[in-house]
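Z., the sequence and structure:
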Amino acid sequence: MAHQIKFNEKTGQYSFFSVKEKAWHGLGQIVEGYPTSKEALELAGLNYTVEKRPLFTYDTENYNADKDEDIIIPEIEVPNYFATIRTDTDQVLGLVGNDYKIVQNVDAFTFFDSIVGGDGIMYETAGALGKGEKIFITAKLPDYIKVGSDDLIEKYIFLTTSHDGSGSITAAFTPVRIVCANTLSMALNNCANVVKIRHTDSAQEQLKQAHKIMGISNTLTAQLDAIFNQWAKVKITDKEVLRLIQETMSPSKEVLDNVRKGATDALSTVFTNVCENAFVYAMSSPTQQTETTKGTLFGAYNAITGYYQNVKEYKTDEDKLNSILFGTGLQRSQNAFRLCTDFAKEGNTALN
């Protein structure tokens, strides 16, 4: 995939920063310590503003370039539409309507700072794509979830927004397992792990409150800690792991019905291969052989989320990110969370 990271010709730097480790594209500024929001803004080249400017066309119906070289062509304003302009370069980023509200890059960081009152949030990466029409930020919350004695799950927040009218402000809660960097997508009680905010007059205020809507709090951490530690004590057989994977991966009710009837001949080769690959990962990956994962419900759940991070092949890194945060990977992870919750309560009868 083309990396699309903005190259700033004025500074001679790519608009991207990362803490300690280089990203897959190998570009941008690598820093050792966690920067403040102000420092992250500058390191990532996001310290620019955007404004809406009116659009104009010209009355050329009666204009003859050969005869009227000195005549000024009248400007005609285009009503209700505006260009979004990056003010430091005067580049056009997009076309938006009258009600579109710009959320400046600096305001996007208020989402992260408001989570812990501006103290303790750890910015991991940030950057701009294209001409600067899209930006992204990831940060790590200051504490983690401990499962058993050997699994630590850190909590990451991802936010992306655009200045070209192409989409909403999107924030997602993504715990990442330290040992193997599995991305786990949560669906817990009434907590939303993805929030989308339209670019309207209330966008900035909604952004400040988004973490409350997502349920990012010490209460959520305590819930997840209790759930995962309970799952680490629930035993599950290899046969039940395979069945859990099959139910989780079922793309339709028809496939799910065939799985439950044991009609393997009716299952597609693609579906069968996906389930087998996930099962092999569950049985053989070193990260699945720890005290908290081997033969446990937590291990089965972790194997499914780990499949989308470490096994499944994607055409591009962007496809992988979209799948894990917003697409099939997210949906399957949510299915797995629901099924594991039921299995913890009902045993293998939850798989019938």
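The first strand starts at residue 7 and ends at 8. The longest helix spans residues 328-346.

Let me know what you think.
H.
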